[in-house]
Design brief:
The protein has a six-stranded mixed beta sheet, with helices on both faces. The longest helix has 22 residues. Helix 1 packs antiparallel against helix 6 and helix 3 packs parallel to helix 7. The protein has a single domain, classed as 3-Layer(aba) Sandwich (Uracil-DNA Glycosylase, subunit E). By secondary structure, it is an alpha/beta fold. The chain is globular. The protein contains eleven helices and six strands. 40% of the residues are buried. The structure holds uracil and iron/sulfur cluster. Iron/sulfur cluster (SF4) binds next to helix 7. The site of iron/sulfur cluster (SF4) has 14 residues, from helix 7.
Length: 252
């Protein structure tokens, strides 16, 4: 294990766990201890709510937008109730030609203030998670959320709200065309897959969103409250990195 990776794993709260395991199990930090590559690709049927009247037009307009139009549309959007308490909508950040797309739930207080996703405490952990698999914010990764406006008191967005915001995320995906999507937490996973998802039962499997491989892991804010699950998130990241390597080999 390199010193850098050691430091990152420490920041993720994994250092001691790894050392403990390494002593007894000789598990390498860069190898998954759950191998999921043999499991079948899951292909759930998308079941997003029917668009309410007029929303079909809106969705098809959004589906034709370029980045600048998307930015303006999101900034001015008042389609769902989340517009009421937001300071600003938060579209996303990063490399628009990225291979990696990470999708969270929705902006928190700091994100609402600064207009960038994952800049608060959960964001620090996300950056450490990215660094653990050699990814740096802004380079080959785009970070977005299921809803672009902050839910009051950081509550979970309602299905109506994620559905109202869904055309924006869909357009972001279509423009970026990532090789792999990582859904952070249940709301993101359910929004992207259009089905009920339990993170614990879905980890280590490869799903698809419109032909793009998708994997799920815990949301960093959840990991801050449930430190013992950080080791599982690390397994998921290693699985993600391995999947990306395979995907890149396929497209060479
Ligand atoms: N949590 C999220 O899901 N997204 C953010 O941007 C910040 C915290
Ligand atoms: Fe519009 Fe999405 Fe904000 Fe709702 S959360 S107001 S749909 S940008």
């Amino acid at each position: 294990m390199t010193q850098k990776r050691d430091a990152i794993l420490c920041e993720m709260g994994l250092g001691p766990i790894w050392r403990l395991r390494n002593k007894t199990e000789t598990v390498r930090a860069d190898e998954p201890f759950v191998t999921a590559q043999d499991r079948p690709v899951e292909a759930p049927i998308a079941v997003h709510p029917e668009p309410v009247e007029g929303q079909g037009d809106r969705a098809s307009r959004i589906a034709r937008m370029d980045w600048e139009e998307l930015r303006q549309s999101v900034a001015a959007c008042r389609t769902c109730g989340l517009c009421q308490a937001r300071k600003q909508a938060v579209l996303g950040v990063g490399d628009v030609n990225a291979d990696w797309l990470f999708v969270g739930e929705g902006p928190g207080a700091e994100e609402d203030e600064r207009g960038e996703p994952f800049v608060g405490q959960a964001g620090k952990l996300l950056d450490a998670m990215l660094a653990a698999i050699d990814i740096k914010r802004g380079k080959d990764v785009y970070i977005a959320n299921a809803v672009k406006c902050r839910p009051p008191n950081n509550r979970t967005p309602e299905p109506e709200e994620t559905a109202a915001c869904w055309p924006y995320l869909q357009r972001q995906i279509a423009l970026i065309q990532p090789k792999l999507i990582v859904a952070l937490g249940r709301p993101a996973a359910q929004t992207l897959l259009g089905v009920e998802v339990k993170i614990g039962a879905s980890r280590g499997r490869r799903f698809e969103h419109q032909g793009i491989p998708l994997i799920v892991t815990y949301h960093p804010a959840y990991l801050l409250r449930n430190l013992s699950d950080k080791a599982k998130a690390w397994e998921d990241l290693v699985f993600a990195r391995k999947s990306m390597r395979e995907l890149k080999l396929k497209t060479v």
